Amino acid sequence: MATSSDETPKTPVTEPIPSAPRTVPPSPPAPAAAPKKLRPTRISGTWIAVLVAIVVLIFLLVFILQNGDTATIHFLWGQFSLPLGVALLFGAIGGALLVAVVGAARILQLRRQAKRITGRPATASPARRES
User: Fold this and answer.
1) Which of 51, 68, 69, 77 is 20 to 30 A from residue 36's alpha carbon, by CA?
2) Contact criterion met (CB below 8 Å) for 97 and 116
3) Is there a contact between 68 and 84 (Cβ–Cβ < 8 Å)?
């Protein structure tokens, strides 16, 4: 029999060669214990509030100094002459006091209602767990 070149030679079936046991590459060394993220404290919050208040006061001072023209204010039966910036500052303070009074009245109303429902006084903050 003649063999033709278009026949594909059969590949002999061989048993798989046992390979060496696979080794897992060593993992990189773990970094030193990462410091826990510190929670902000009340003091740090206070410092941030103080810094924000300083910036607001600087802007307020610049506003008052730039609006130094005298303005005549008529209130109830009186008449006053004040620098415009100071008059606007008094108006803002009066508005803030009005909001604070209304807010305090609402808080007291809610506390009384909570006391009536539960029979015990409402606390401003949850009880702390002791360790």
Assistant:
1) 51
2) no
3) yes
Burial profile 56-65: b = 16 or more Cβ within 10 angstroms, e = fewer: eeeeeeeebe
Task: For 46-64, write each residue's pLDDT tens digit.
Answer: 889 899 999 999 998 898 8
Left (φ > 0), alpha (ψ -120 to 50) or beta: where does 76 sit?
left
Q: Are 58 and 74 in contact (CB under 8 A)?
A: no
Q: pTM value?
A: 0.50
Residues 6+ away with beta carbon under 8 Å from 63: 85, 88
pLDDT, residue 131, reads 46
Q: Which amino acid is at 116?
A: R
